[in-house]
Amino acid sequence: MKNAELYETHVKTVNLDAAVSFYKNLGLELAYFLEERRVAFFFLGDSENKQQMLGVWEVNEHEFVRSHFAFKVSLEQLRSVPEFLHAKGIALSPSFGLDACEPVVHAWMPAACYYFSDPDGNSLEYLALIEQEPKPELGVLHLSEWEKTFQ
């Protein structure tokens, strides 16, 4: 269905306890933990509304495959991501050949993003949609360069 929304996504880990600590450290609320199945579920956003969920499954190393997902935030929130992650001991990752000194913009969307990794190397992203017309011909560039195109 065209108007369906994503309710949950799942990632794999080789160490569920470390992953639970990591995602709790990001501020996610642990919703349910099943020791016998080695899985933890977290609510994203407002846990009162229970609109989105992340499942983290422990697997053996030979079953592990890295994945990627993005947390949607406002542009104002995105600007505070470096300080937020730094305070938690989490490093930003360079992306698309650009350093992490500022957000990168995917001009085709457009959206500004910061990338980082969880303890298993899953690629995570904080993403803010930008209220301007897409410019796909610009590719991926730093936010300051994107902003210059509108001056």
Residue-averaged pLDDT, rounded? 95
Distance between the termini: 39 Å
User: How much helicity do the residues have?
Assistant: 10-25%
Under CATH, the homologous superfamily of the largest domain reads: 2,3-Dihydroxybiphenyl 1,2-Dioxygenase, domain 1
CATH class of the largest domain: Alpha Beta
Sheet with the most strands? 6 strands, mixed
Number of domain units: 2
Q: What's the architecture of the largest domain, going by CATH?
A: Roll
User: Which structural class do the helices and strands define?
Assistant: alpha+beta
- The number of distinct β-strands equals 10
Oligomer: single chain
Rg of Cα set: 17 Å
Uncertain regions: pLDDT < 50 for 5+ in a row? none
* CATH fold group of the largest domain: 2,3-Dihydroxybiphenyl 1,2-Dioxygenase, domain 1
H/E element sequence: EHEEEEHHEEEEEH
Shape: globular
Query: Number of helical segments?
Result: 4
Proportion of beta-strand residues = 25-35%
Protein name: VOC family protein
Domain VOC: 5-129
InterPro entries: Glyas_Bleomycin-R_OHBP_Dase, Glyas_Fos-R_dOase_dom, VOC_core
Pfam families: Glyoxalase
Structural features:
single chain, 151 residues, alpha+beta, 2,3-Dihydroxybiphenyl 1,2-Dioxygenase, domain 1, 6-stranded mixed beta sheet, 10 strands, globular
